[in-house]
Amino acid sequence: MANKKKYILILSLFFSISFCLFFAGSVAAGSSQPPEKKLLENPLGGGTNIENTMSSAIKVVLGLIGSVTLLVFIIGGVMWLTSGGNQQRVSMGTNTMLYAAVGIFVIFTAYFVLRVIIEGVTKG
Questions:
Q1: CA neighbours within 13 Å on the CB side: how many for 12?
Q2: Which of 3, 55, 96, 111 fits 76 for a cystine, CB–CB 3.0-4.6 Å?
Q3: Tally of helices (H runs) and strands (E runs) in the chain
Q4: What is the pTM of this model?
Q5: Contact, 23 vs 32, CB < 8 A?
Protein backbone atom coordinates (compact mmCIF):
# COMPACT_ATOMS: atom_id res chain seq x y z
CA MET A 1 0.00 0.00 0.00
CA ALA A 2 2.85 2.37 0.84
CA ASN A 3 4.52 1.60 -2.50
CA LYS A 4 1.29 2.41 -4.34
CA LYS A 5 1.01 5.80 -2.59
CA LYS A 6 4.65 6.55 -3.33
CA TYR A 7 4.15 5.57 -6.99
CA ILE A 8 1.07 7.84 -7.29
CA LEU A 9 2.94 10.72 -5.61
CA ILE A 10 5.94 10.40 -7.93
CA LEU A 11 3.71 10.07 -10.99
CA SER A 12 1.62 13.14 -10.07
CA LEU A 13 4.78 15.13 -9.33
CA PHE A 14 6.23 14.13 -12.71
CA PHE A 15 3.08 15.15 -14.57
CA SER A 16 2.74 18.47 -12.75
CA ILE A 17 6.37 19.40 -13.47
CA SER A 18 6.12 18.34 -17.11
CA PHE A 19 2.84 20.26 -17.41
CA CYS A 20 4.55 23.43 -16.17
CA LEU A 21 7.48 22.96 -18.55
CA PHE A 22 5.23 22.23 -21.51
CA PHE A 23 3.26 25.47 -21.14
CA ALA A 24 6.22 27.69 -20.23
CA GLY A 25 6.45 30.63 -22.61
CA SER A 26 9.56 31.46 -24.56
CA VAL A 27 11.21 34.82 -23.96
CA ALA A 28 12.27 35.02 -27.60
CA ALA A 29 8.60 35.17 -28.61
CA GLY A 30 8.22 38.57 -26.96
CA SER A 31 8.17 41.85 -28.85
CA SER A 32 11.45 43.71 -29.20
CA GLN A 33 9.70 47.09 -29.13
CA PRO A 34 8.99 48.78 -25.81
CA PRO A 35 5.34 49.03 -24.80
CA GLU A 36 3.41 52.13 -25.78
CA LYS A 37 3.06 54.74 -23.03
CA LYS A 38 -0.49 55.53 -21.97
CA LEU A 39 -1.73 58.45 -19.95
CA LEU A 40 -3.79 57.82 -16.85
CA GLU A 41 -7.38 58.95 -17.13
CA ASN A 42 -9.22 60.92 -14.49
CA PRO A 43 -11.15 58.31 -12.43
CA LEU A 44 -13.89 60.84 -11.65
CA GLY A 45 -14.54 61.31 -15.35
CA GLY A 46 -15.04 64.54 -17.26
CA GLY A 47 -13.56 67.71 -15.87
CA THR A 48 -12.75 68.63 -12.33
CA ASN A 49 -15.70 70.89 -11.63
CA ILE A 50 -17.64 70.55 -8.39
CA GLU A 51 -20.78 69.15 -10.05
CA ASN A 52 -18.98 66.12 -11.48
CA THR A 53 -17.08 65.52 -8.26
CA MET A 54 -20.17 65.73 -6.06
CA SER A 55 -22.23 63.59 -8.44
CA SER A 56 -19.59 60.88 -8.50
CA ALA A 57 -19.23 60.89 -4.72
CA ILE A 58 -22.99 60.75 -4.18
CA LYS A 59 -23.36 57.89 -6.66
CA VAL A 60 -20.67 55.89 -4.88
CA VAL A 61 -22.10 56.49 -1.41
CA LEU A 62 -25.68 55.77 -2.44
CA GLY A 63 -24.53 52.69 -4.34
CA LEU A 64 -22.86 51.31 -1.22
CA ILE A 65 -25.89 52.10 0.92
CA GLY A 66 -28.14 50.47 -1.69
CA SER A 67 -25.99 47.33 -1.63
CA VAL A 68 -26.26 47.12 2.14
CA THR A 69 -30.03 47.62 1.92
CA LEU A 70 -30.30 44.82 -0.64
CA LEU A 71 -28.29 42.56 1.67
CA VAL A 72 -30.66 43.39 4.55
CA PHE A 73 -33.63 42.57 2.29
CA ILE A 74 -32.09 39.19 1.44
CA ILE A 75 -31.40 38.48 5.12
CA GLY A 76 -35.04 39.28 5.92
CA GLY A 77 -36.16 36.91 3.18
CA VAL A 78 -33.97 34.13 4.52
CA MET A 79 -35.33 34.74 8.03
CA TRP A 80 -38.87 34.54 6.67
CA LEU A 81 -38.16 31.37 4.66
CA THR A 82 -36.41 29.56 7.51
CA SER A 83 -38.94 30.53 10.18
CA GLY A 84 -40.49 27.06 10.19
CA GLY A 85 -43.92 28.41 11.11
CA ASN A 86 -42.69 30.37 14.14
CA GLN A 87 -44.87 33.49 14.10
CA GLN A 88 -42.26 35.64 15.82
CA ARG A 89 -39.61 34.82 13.18
CA VAL A 90 -42.13 35.25 10.35
CA SER A 91 -43.03 38.74 11.57
CA MET A 92 -39.37 39.60 12.17
CA GLY A 93 -38.44 38.55 8.60
CA THR A 94 -41.44 40.37 7.14
CA ASN A 95 -40.61 43.55 9.06
CA THR A 96 -36.96 43.34 7.98
CA MET A 97 -37.98 43.08 4.31
CA LEU A 98 -40.47 45.93 4.75
CA TYR A 99 -37.87 48.20 6.34
CA ALA A 100 -35.37 47.33 3.59
CA ALA A 101 -37.96 48.22 0.91
CA VAL A 102 -38.62 51.53 2.67
CA GLY A 103 -34.84 52.06 2.80
CA ILE A 104 -34.52 51.52 -0.94
CA PHE A 105 -37.31 54.05 -1.52
CA VAL A 106 -35.54 56.56 0.75
CA ILE A 107 -32.25 55.99 -1.11
CA PHE A 108 -33.84 56.65 -4.51
CA THR A 109 -35.62 59.72 -3.15
CA ALA A 110 -32.38 61.04 -1.64
CA TYR A 111 -30.60 60.55 -4.95
CA PHE A 112 -33.19 62.55 -6.88
CA VAL A 113 -33.35 65.31 -4.25
CA LEU A 114 -29.56 65.65 -4.16
CA ARG A 115 -29.44 65.65 -7.94
CA VAL A 116 -31.93 68.54 -8.09
CA ILE A 117 -30.02 70.46 -5.41
CA ILE A 118 -26.67 70.02 -7.18
CA GLU A 119 -28.12 71.07 -10.53
CA GLY A 120 -29.79 74.09 -8.89
CA VAL A 121 -26.59 75.20 -7.17
CA THR A 122 -24.29 74.74 -10.13
CA LYS A 123 -26.58 76.07 -12.86
CA GLY A 124 -28.16 78.91 -10.90
A1: 6
A2: 96
A3: 3, 0
A4: 0.54
A5: no
Q: For residue range 36-91, list pLDDT tens digits in order.
A: 787 777 665 656 677 777 778 888 888 899 899 999 999 999 999 999 889 999 99
Residues found in the chain? 124
Contact 94, 76 (CB under 8 A): yes
93: exposed, middle or buried (C-beta count within 10 Å: 0-12, 13-18, 19+)? buried
User: Coil, strand, or helix at residue 117?
Assistant: helix
Taking the CA of residue 99 as centre, how many other CA atoms within 13 Å lie in the half-sphere pointing to its CB? 11
Query: How far is Cα 106 from Cα 58, in angstroms, rounded to an integer?
Result: 14
107: left (phi over 0), alpha (psi -120 to 50) or beta: alpha
Side-chain half-sphere CA neighbours of 21 within 13 A: 6
